[in-house]
Amino acid sequence: MVSKIETPALVFDQSELVSLLGLGLIAREKASVKVLYAIKALALLDVLEIFAPHLDGFAVSSPFEARLIKDSFPGAKTHFTSPGIRPKEFSELCTLCDFISANSLAQLKSFGSVIGSTKSLGIRVNTKVSYVSDCRYDPSRLGSKLGVTIDQVPQLLADSPTQVEGLHFHSNSDSENFHELLDNVVALINAIPKWQEVKWVNLGGGYLLEGVSLDPLVEAAELIRARFGAEVFIEPGAGLVRAAGYLIGSVLDTFEVDGKRIAVLDTTINHMPEVLEFDYQPDVVGHLDDGPFEYVIAGATCLAGDIFGTYRLPTPLEVGQRVVFREAGAYSLAKAHRFNGVNLPQVGILDPDGQYRVAKRFDYHDFASFWKSND
After folding, report:
1. CA distance 241 to 44
2. Mind listing the domains of the chain with CATH numbers?
3. Under a CB-based contact definition with an 8 Å cutoff, are residues 343 and 367 in contact?
4. Strand pairing of 293-298 and 260-265?
5. Is residue 227 within 8 Å of residue 262, measured between CB atoms?
6. Residue 38 CB coordination number (10 Å)
């Protein structure tokens, strides 16, 4: 089947999406939390339609994301937070979202009264508890733009002219250890005087769900309910979609330079930007640590660093052969772009019965319309 797919292609395995959804539902049941899907990871409507009937809502970060959910799933609950909101967007967000967390004291003063009169108002908190080694992806980094610092929360809850009903933090990135989340919850509870209460706490995302122990999540949720009597939310993004996506490219050329075999594909790391942004090397189907044929697998653009990585394969690559990258479901389509005019990958869905269908296809008209003026 792979050999027949037009490339480049980003393919989502529906069975795997359902399996990941199941992990989210297990977390919800075991920890008695409400699970939101953070659509920044992947907002493909085919995927949202699978998740919407089963999860408790969506986490959004912009008016466009909020409007997409409102238009597609009118009854769905939405949680919103963003470090950048334009004044003219305040009233629109009130019509689109159910829970809105201010990112700063300035935001709270600017729109707190507007939001608080119609929706549940929260505040994003920087717990200052960090486990992310790369500061580019650390919400709790020194000087972070994301949330008010934890030491400011007690005074904020006491002095805010508009009632703050919820606390929201998101303190990790691609973690497989919910003990780190538990540490954040303990820090939050210890920082807030016992007489101060909130109605809900959003634990954010940044945690993967496959093969991890949920016990610390259960303990964290129980601590929050015991301390505040509050409703608890989590909002996984990548954890519900990454493992379900595959980026497929075709070999355009192979040659040798300085003793290294190079294979150039018709896709590019610009279709999977975390390769460059996050120094992430995706897994290639067929790679063997002791494989006899080593290749530098590269993308089709003129960017010298358009390199997926070095892989060892059991047989030589040939022009026209497909190369399949795993773990491509999150932050690929959401960030993909057309540098050098290389077309975006078509988007396909692999149904549970093994049938492949194209969900989205891009062409020259999409490229040209982007560069043409509106008139």
Report:
1. 11
2. 2-10+242-371 (2.40.37.10), 32-240 (3.20.20.10)
3. yes
4. parallel
5. no
6. 26
3-state class of 101 per DSSP? strand
Q: Report the DSSP beta bridge partners of residue 293.
A: 313
Q: Give the residue carrying structure tokens 């492949």.
A: 356
Q: Which two tokens stand for residue 248?
A: 């497929």
Give the SS3 label for residue 228.
helix
List Cα–Cα distances, 220 to 187, 189, 312, in angstroms: 11, 10, 43
Is 0.85 surpassed by the pTM of this model? yes
pLDDT tens, residue by residue, 113-154: 888 788 999 999 999 999 998 899 999 999 999 999 999 999
What region does 84 belong to: left with phi over 0, alpha with psi -120 to 50, or beta?
beta
Euclidean distance between CA atoms 145 and 139, whole angstroms? 8
Q: What residues form DSSP beta bridges with 325?
A: 247, 284
Cα–Cα distance for residue pair 217/23, rounded to 1 Å: 13
The span from the CA of 8 to the CA of 264, in Å, is 12
Q: Closest Cα partner for 180 from 241, 256, 127?
A: 127
